[in-house]
Automatic annotation (TrEMBL):
Record keywords: Aspartyl protease, Hydrolase, Protease, Signal
Name of this protein: Aspartic protease pep1
InterPro entries found in the cross-reference section: Aspartic_peptidase_A1, Aspartic_peptidase_AS, PEPTIDASE_A1, Peptidase_aspartic_dom_sf
Family stated for the protein in its record: Belongs to the peptidase A1 family.
UniProt-annotated catalytic positions: 79, 270
């Protein structure tokens, strides 16, 4: 079919083990306003009073947030599937004309870590490498002075006109190489800010599609206006930096199914993946209840005239979470007789762990808590 396949951005980074974690008390529920550009250093442990919030945007299959490096504000991908913060920079030795990048020589607060490098590959084959340094990094009004970041100089990815880089929000620390070429860990921006927050959490609110509210990310607090019902707390798998949990059952139109595939029966939440990628048996059960649905070269598609979809819930560590938005993911093909076929937002994965990407997050509000080794989840306010 003469059609470019829709973007399926998948930015899961390389795997490494999470740092040891301790149990924290439950999040406190409210914030107060924060003057911009306060440094975490001014808030000793014990004075946990600052919170932050930033808008997020869905652009070209990516979730973008603005971050300020030194005094330059740039949009970057917000990725819970990897851990390095990096941006395209003036170290890049190709053309940056028209693209978004960080001008190192215009920052008075940048300090390169001599000999340090980073190199990250993503599961979709993209990736970057470059030098490593520290700078003042502000997100949602929260500033970390001396946050570690990578200044990219080489592909295989290329600079872009709508995003400058990526902030990794996986659990634990980031891994870079020192001047001896050895892997060393550095704190992430989230690890640095966590001790200044009333609770060491971030909450992801990503309603998506026609009529959806403004997406946002909150740091240090839970905004009860962004979900309905109560938050369910789900334990995370140990031994992985991923936001990963068991997922062994599902419901289609109220009928219960157990996952039978000889897989791990697990899933992870990845804001860096656009679609909802489930085991083939789950997609098959779902699309069996969509009249006219079929697989085109492995991709689940259906007539664009479809207006109602079966109800689907997926197991998030024992909690059934709904999937009710972005199921029609847009045009796929048009037949000679005029019939239009649309692409499904729910697709299959051949991996042993399912990836619950942005299509899943369009229906669910999620609170991420590395210290407690949990996520909390509730139905989103659309
Ligand atoms: C980033 O800031 C620019 C300029 O204020 C704004 O136009 C854009 O919408 C912001 N992007 C996000 C993702 O909030
Ligand atoms: C550009 O990058 C390549 C690959 O690392 C390197 O061989 C080359 O020297 C660089 N060019 C400049 C002008 O820095
Ligand atoms: C970077 O900033 C410096 C200092 O403001 C400026 O002279 C230079 O033209 C900028 N370079 C690029 C590539 O934007
Ligand atoms: C980065 O890692 C990839 C995958 O291991 C490798 O192919 C590439 O050469 C590395 N790039 C640099 C600049 O080290
Ligand atoms: C249109 O063409 C497609 C592909 O040949 C076929 O599957 C479908 O049934 C046709 N629809 C109508 C309304 O004729």
């Amino acid at each position: 079919m003469a059609r470019i396949r829709p973007l399926l951005v998948t930015l899961l980074g390389l795997l490494y083990s999470a740092a040891a974690v301790a149990i924290e008390e439950q999040p406190q529920a409210r914030s107060f306003s924060l003057p911009a550009a306060r440094t975490s250093e001014r808030y000793p442990v014990g004075k946990r009073s600052i919170t932050g919030t930033t808008n997020a945007a869905h652009v070209d299959g990516s979730i973008l947030v603005n971050i300020t490096l030194g005094s330059q504000t740039l949009p970057v991908v917000f990725d819970t599937g990897s851990s390095i913060l990096w941006v395209w920079s003036t170290y890049y030795n190709g053309s940056l004309a028209g693209d978004l990048y960080y001008n190192i020589s215009a920052s008075t607060t940048w300090a390169q870590l001599p000999g340090y490098t980073f190199n990250i590959s993503y599961v979709d084959g993209s990736g970057v490498s470059g030098v490593v340094g520290t700078d003042k990094v502000t997100i949602g009004g929260l500033t970390v002075t001396g946050a570690t970041l990578g200044a990219a100089n080489l592909g295989p990815s290329a600079p872009s006109t709508f995003k400058a880089g990526l902030i990794g929000m996986e659990r634990g620390s980031m891994s870079v190489k020192n001047s001896a070429g050895n892997s060393v860990t550095r704190n992430t921006w989230m690890q640095n800010i966590a001790s200044s927050l009333p609770s060491p959490i971030f909450a992801v609110y990503l309603p998506w599609g026609s009529g959806a509210a403004q997406s946002s990310i909150d740091f240090g607090y839970i905004d009860s206006s962004k979900y309905t019902g109560t938050l369910s707390t789900v334990p995370l798998m140990s031994g992985t930096a991923r936001w990963q949990f068991t997922s062994t059952s599902y419901y289609v139109n109220g009928v219960h199914y157990s996952v039978t595939t000889t897989t791990s029966g697990q899933a992870l939440i990845d804001t860096g993946t656009t679609l909802l990628l489930v085991y083939p048996e789950i997609a098959a059960a779902f699309y069996a209840a969509v009249p006219g649905a079929y697989q085109d070269s492995g991709e689940w598609v259906f007539p664009c005239s479809t207006t109602t979809f079966p109800t689907l819930t997926l197991d998030v560590g024992g909690v059934q979470a709904p999937v009710s938005h972005e199921i029609n993911w847009g045009p796929w093909a048009t037949f000679a007789n005029g019939t239009k076929i649309c692409d499904g937002g729910i697709q299959t994965t051949s991996r042993t762990t399912m990836t619950f990407g942005d299509v899943f997050l369009a229906s669910n509000y999620v609170v991420f808590n590395d210290a407690a080794s949990t996520i909390q989840i509730a139905n989103i306010v659309f």
